[in-house]
Amino acid sequence: MSWLRGASIAAVSAALALGAAQVMRNGVQGQAAAGNILRTIDGRPDLNGIWQAIGTAHWDLRDHQARPGPVLELGAVAAVPAGLSVVDGGEIPYQPWAAARQQENYEHWLTRDPEVKCYLPGLPRATYMPYPFQIVQTAGNDIVMAYEYASASRVIAMGTVEPPPVDAWMGQSAGRWEGDTLVVESNGFNDQTWFDRAGNFHSEALQLVERFTPVTADRIDYEVTIEDPKVFTRSWKIQLPLYRRHDRNAQLLEFKCVEFVEELMYGHLRKKTGDERPYGAARVRWP
Amino acid sequence: MSTRRVVSLAIVMTTVAVALAVVAGRAQESRWEAPRTPDGQPDLQGMWTNYTNTPFEVFAEGDKPDLYAGDPDRTAQGTGPGFLNDTAGRQLARGRSLVVDPPNGRVPIMPWAEERRNYKLAHIQDDWVNHTAWERCITRGVPGGLFPAGYGSGYQILQSPGVVAIVYEMIHEARIIPLDGRPHIGSRIRTWNGDSRGRWDGDTLVVDITNYNDKGSVATNVATQRVRAIPQSEALHVVERFTRVDENTIIYEATVEDPKVFTAPWTVRIPMQREPDYRMFEYACHEGNHALPNTLSAGRARDGAR
């Protein structure tokens, strides 16, 4: 092989690699190469299935280092793993008062996080909690996303919808297709939900634009633009991948956590019978 | 004419009317061609409601509606079976009973289960576990979530290849029913809503449900009268049948079998009406559940006053 031929092959390979990288990047932008994703009978991307985020965004959307869990006796079992920020640019553009509120939330996590009480998770939090969710995509009409956590769900109405009549924990979602990307615009939220377990929060002025772009049969790139003029100085974005659950006979199981928090919320109101089993003396280390 | 004869005549006329309605329904059923989804399933999709004025059971002397409503001392009014007044202008059917089998319209409940229900409903101020799973905002259950409750009765059915999803307005349930013939989950996993497996029997969606826990109850709301808060065992087995008999009607049937609680299987038949303009609102139950802490704190206040 002459040096020229070698160089040409190298150049072609480099070009192919660059091209492939370009395709991969474009995939994120909603132009996935046709053929490597599943499609429905009518040619739409087929998002049906059970999906789950793998990272640690549910702990904190931003960079976070590993730390021990809040209860001493749980040792390493309930420790918090480290994670890289899923926020474009790394930081969330809080207004000064809101940055202070977030810090306060962080310091009072157990008493303030709605997840501790098994409340509905809101969006986009439901998508990247450490539980699977199932997409049921009908032929040309509404799409339901059913989340294992707390039996939460949302129906995404395809097309235009009337303004939301009342605020809701899960908001109101309207969807449309842009190429191979499912674009979902949501509003009508209340101000009770958080983004993660680190106290990142929003007001009832929250507006989301979510983009679900399948890039392979088993991966959706999930991108959300978050806007809330009462809390942030500008809109900001998060991006993270969602993966298909391939476990044998995978299905959503029941996680009705209300039952797990009744003692926490109402225990002081229960009639004492004398047969109560005392709780152990667990030591809470933080927050 | 004596009162008894009038009542007998009324029963005969009702029976004839029901029989005629059933015959008419069958005739219509044979003419109706259910639309298909692109993958060939009978198409049940859309927004449905199940408002009705038909009582759940046939009422009997000795029934105690105040007790079944969790109000044995009759401190409140208006919780009896006649409260399902519709204000949205629907033409609501008023039949004999939703329970169609046994033919007397009465659920064959074992005495121990009635006693257990009586105890729990008379002690809702002691402990949240004496409330039904609905008041606890856990679930209205399966099949209980499809028993008419008088409000919040929207159901959206969505289908994709191999899956039927039913979104329940009340307590925001999104129930996923796989149709791919997979086996039930293992018996170690017990659940409030059971494990659903669906198949098509002609144009009827048949759903087999097992793997229940023994903490819930088949029926949770006051409109289910005497059956409300009757406990369920892990042996509970339910078979549901959804049949779209015309453009605007699904007939929903559930056969309930629990040999530890009922002396025989029993069946309810409930019409669901298509209501495309019905709009579901978020039913975020637990998040605003004041009833539970208020009931309990009233109980503790009562203890203190004694």
Overall description:
The complex is a heterodimer of chains A (287) and B (306). Chain A has helices at 3-28, 96-107, 109-112, 125-128, 258-266, and strands spanning 49-52, 133-137, 143-147, 153-158, 172-178, 181-187, 207-216, 219-227, 236-244. The longest helix of chain A is centred in the first third of the chain and has 26 residues, at 3-28. Chain A is globular, with a radius of gyration of 22 Å. Chain A is an alpha+beta fold and 287 residues long. Chain A has one domain (49-258). In chain B, 20% of the residues lie in helices and 22% in strands. Mean pLDDT of chain B is 87; it is low at 1-25 and 76-83. Chain B has helices at 3-31, 65-68, 111-122, 291-305, and strands spanning 46-49, 99-101, 154-160, 163-168, 173-178, 195-201, 204-210, 237-246, 249-257, 266-274. Chain B is of the alpha+beta class and 306 residues long. In chain B, strands 1, 2, 3, 4, 5, 6, 7, 8, 9 and 10 form a 10-stranded antiparallel β-sheet that branches. The longest helix of chain B has 29 residues, at 3-31. The chains are: A alpha+beta (287), B alpha+beta (306). Chains A and B meet through β2, β3 and α5 of A and β3, β4, β5 and α4 of B.
